[in-house]
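Work Package 3 committed the consortium to producing structural models of liganded targets before the mid-term review. Because experimental data for this complex are still outstanding, the team generated a predictive model from sequence and the ligand definition alone, so that downstream docking and mutagenesis planning could proceed in parallel. The input record is reproduced below exactly as it was submitted to the modelling pipeline, together with the SMILES string for coenzyme A.
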Amino acid sequence: MKDKIYFIELNEDKKYEEYKQYFSLLPLAKQQQIDKFRYDIDKKLSLIADLFIRFLICQNLNLHNKEISFEKNSFGKPYLMGNAEFHFNISHTRNAIAIGISSNPIGVDIEKIKCADLKIAERFFCSNELEYIQSNKQDRFFYEIWTKKEAYIKWDGRGLSIPLDSFDVTESTIDKILHTITIHDYIISICSRQDFSGTWCMELTEDSVLDCLQKLS
Ligand SMILES: CC(C)(COP(=O)(O)OP(=O)(O)OC[C@H]1O[C@@H](n2cnc3c(N)ncnc32)[C@H](O)[C@@H]1OP(=O)(O)O)[C@@H](O)C(=O)NCCC(=O)NCCS
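The resulting structure, written out as tokens with the ligand in place, is given here.
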């Protein structure tokens, strides 16, 4: 299996209702989790991400959707049951999804580049990270640090139980397992011991994802 990163930007004109026909392809617990979201955009992000990772698993591991079952570690990191060699991680933000698949543990985080909130940086980042943002004076650098920190705790699998100021993503031993891609207005960071620097990020439209989902049953 090739390590890959997928980027899907959602089309705001496409209604959530168009996906209702795929709902039954998900287990009841996931359907209930999606139903609880207040806004259709969050329902869409969660539904598409879950269906698309199922599609990728079917394609890469030659499995049928019904044979796919996810479990979560005690911190909520999902993994595929019955195949310890397949790793994945999902991230969503309004209005895009990033998914990484790998033969090694992986953490992925995506954010849309907006105005940097330096109060967040002062509160959650450590001094070298803050200095990196302040010396570069661009919003992009704030989001680079943010997504790197998130990708790191998602790679580790313990999520936010790791205090965000307890590690420094500019420090060389951590930085060497991190890789950042900028695509349109989005920034994606990947954390993996696998070298992702030459890895191709596959950019997909919502229509092309819909085509893929038609192959799921
Ligand atoms: C849950 C968390 C792991 C990621 O949350 P997030 O950044 O809001 O959301 P993302 O879209 O990037 O990731 C969510 C997905 O990560 C996966 N995930 C959940 N827990 C995980 C964990 N412990 N480790 C790895 N992946 C995890 C799931 O697939 C989840 O998708 P789902 O909610 O549809 O099941 C956690 O780090 C968090 O809440 N972060 C927000 C903290 C923050 O405010 N940071 C700002 C300063 S850096």
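Reviewers should note the following from the model. The domain at 4-213 is CATH 3.90.470.20 (Ribosomal Protein L22; Chain A). These observations will guide the Year 2 experiments.
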